[in-house]
Amino acid sequence: MEWRGRSRLSCMSPVMTDLSVAVLPAGLPDKRQVAASFSRAAASYDSVAELQRAVGQQLLNRLPAGPVPARWLDLGCGTGHFSRVLGQRYAGSQGLALDIAEGMLKHARPLGGAEHFIAGDAERLPLQNGSCGLIFSSLAVQWCADFSAVLSEARRVLQPGGVLAFASLCVGTLHELRESWGRVDGQVHVNRFREFERYRQLCEASGLQVRSLEQSPHVLHYPDVRSLTHELKALGAHNLNPGRPGGLTGRARIAGLIEAYEGFRQPGGLPATYQVVYAVLEKPL
Asked: How far apart are CA 99 and CA 87, in angstroms?
């Protein structure tokens, strides 16, 4: 596969004037709350982002070889770590970093890596048609309720021959925490994710060519449950689902959670399994 290099769009602004975030219909996850949660976590995020760094590097390793894209987009850039990596990798290209969380953009912007830092929604990209040769998105699109819209927008924004590379999470992620809570009460305590098969169906129906699509587990270990829940909060990735319990969690339920989770203990500590989806898709010529 060859990158479709510097088209006439490289001389134009790729950014539309409307940077508004679409509001989802009632009953779906409130993306304003997702944005607020990650904005609050901007200062602490990098200190606990072991998984995010490892997954993003794996995604980078899956990018196809070829000429440098004239313009790339880091979709869901967070604190901008991979924007800076992409900026070094594709020196001379124009880099765009987009996130729904203003707090993340405020943190990332002074650190550079991209030419433009944009507030926007992956389901409604504020970018011109055919304006990017590469869209890179690591551990962001799992927060999008309408993934078909994400794929449709990626196809619109990519140049012919351009690539969408994304890493996401699917069912089975944090199953130890979910099962442990299930022994305590019937409430929603752990974020829900779509099934891997659903990713496959949506990617195959997207009009993009699926070059690779796979699921791979990534397991982290913690000395205790508090360390895991503290990390999820520091990342801004604690429970954001509708139906989650309100108010403080009582001591008895916390004790029950700890006791249940201990049943999963391994020599390296308490495991937390993330089921990671890696995909590389190409826009037909």
From this structure: 17
